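note to self — DONT lose this again. spent like an hour looking for the file last time. sequence + predicted structure for the chain T wanted, 263 res
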Amino acid sequence: MTSLDSVLDKDGVRLTVDDVVATVTLTNPAKRNAQSPALWRALTEAGRALPGSVRVVVLRGEGKSFSAGLDRQAFTPEGFDGEPSFLDMARGPESELDTTIAEYQEAFTWWRRNDIVSVAAVQGHAIGAGFQLALACDLRVVAEDVQFAMRETSLGLVPDLTGTHPLVNLVGYARALEICATGRFVHAEEAERTGLANLVVPADELDAAARDLAAALLAAPRDAVVETKALLSGAVSRGYEEQRIAERAAQGRRLRDLAGITD
């Protein structure tokens, strides 16, 4: 890949690659990067199009807001051009609705792959689907003006784009319930204090901070980072003894690899 090779640019999503760092940009600032099924398909395509050499993926949004969430046009009878409206989908068979939601979720799942580390650079509004997209990433660098909110419950819905699991893991059940049930804003200070944000910076320093973090993540050997990420992500579901066993197995693989021993 050449520097800043444009791999994909469609439906409000642009993917560029600069050697081992990829950048996924939401490119509809006029609508505060509101999300749609077409955008979700483009995000899924971006994940599938990542070159195998990529180690870090930075997710950002153009303009003053990272993403204001789902485009409300989805709830109108007309919906989006060429798309079934959400109202029509709700009237269809339950199995088809479940399949459709599962397809939408694919846009939010690949960010946690063990072979990459994903960093969301979040400014302004990150609401609903925007909040869940930021939560889909491994790490979050946020601007001082960030405003997270999970508004689905306030609209009579539930968060269904994979955001509930990381939210509970980061802030705990009680705070996650309170954030979702009230739909209130979470600002930068609270985000950093509760673990939603790894770093808070002035808005004009956000892109530079994300680049610096990406560079720091590249300092260690790739295989060691991949193994460590898998080890840490699996710790959520393992007991203490299970994690001890997983640590030994992972370290054994690393030592054999460093010694040039193949199974």
